[in-house]
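User: I'm putting together notes for a lab meeting next week and I want to include a structural view of one of the chains we've been expressing. I don't have a solved structure, so I'd like a prediction I can at least talk through. The sequence is below, exactly as it appears in our construct file.
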Amino acid sequence: MINLNIRTPFIKNLIFLPVIISIFCSKQNLTQLGPDDEFERAMEFYNQKKYDQAIKLFERIIFYYATTEFVDDAQFYLADSYLKKKDYAQAITEFEYLIKNFPNTPFLERSYLLRAQAYFLKSPGYEKDQTETKEAISLLDEFLTRFPNSIYSDTAKALILKARDRLAKKEVENGKLYLKMKEYDSAILYFKYVIDNYPETSSAEESKFLLAQTYEKARRMQEAYDLYKDLVDSPKWKHIAEEKIKRLKIENP
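Assistant: Thanks for the context. Below is the predicted structure for the 253-residue chain, given as structure tokens.
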């Protein structure tokens, strides 16, 4: 008589064997995906804005397929994924790696631009240290010099204007502080600095108005009058400048 208790474990193993084989084969198939398939999967995650998943796959491609045609593509989209998930420090690192190690990549131009953008976005508000804003401007100037005919030139110039306006606002706030403290000579220096060094920014006209106010408080009426007169041509400051001129004429006939 056959002892069924002895054969039962063996029979159970036979039952689960196809499942084990299936799992093993699935894992083999996953690891045997080619770089083109891996990249396609990574881009699917990227386009779905699933950046954490995309990052893992782009890193895998860079590590396992470093000699394939997909490596610089993966490096670019890895950097851009970090940029889009607002990890600006890591984005800068990845763009710099691409620029340094893949000088012939078709992504070089965009990498220069996006690296500068990452510096700008990483920089805090104008009331804090602006070292990174200055670095962004420097890198954008480098971009325009290196790629003078780039289709992204207007984008770079617009970003430079934003960055310069941020720097100008910091100087304006310093001037306002001195104006509030009635230290008019110091306030005048700051407002003049903005007018002379950031003439294209929105802060320049504000500085002109604040400088006129400072002159007025310092009893330098003719200089205040001349600045208010200049501001009459500004759509933003026209009305208030005209009111100031009328008052000055009444008080100083």
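A couple of points you could mention at the meeting. The chain is about 80% helix and 0% strand. The longest helix spans residues 4-31.

User: Perfect, that's what I needed.
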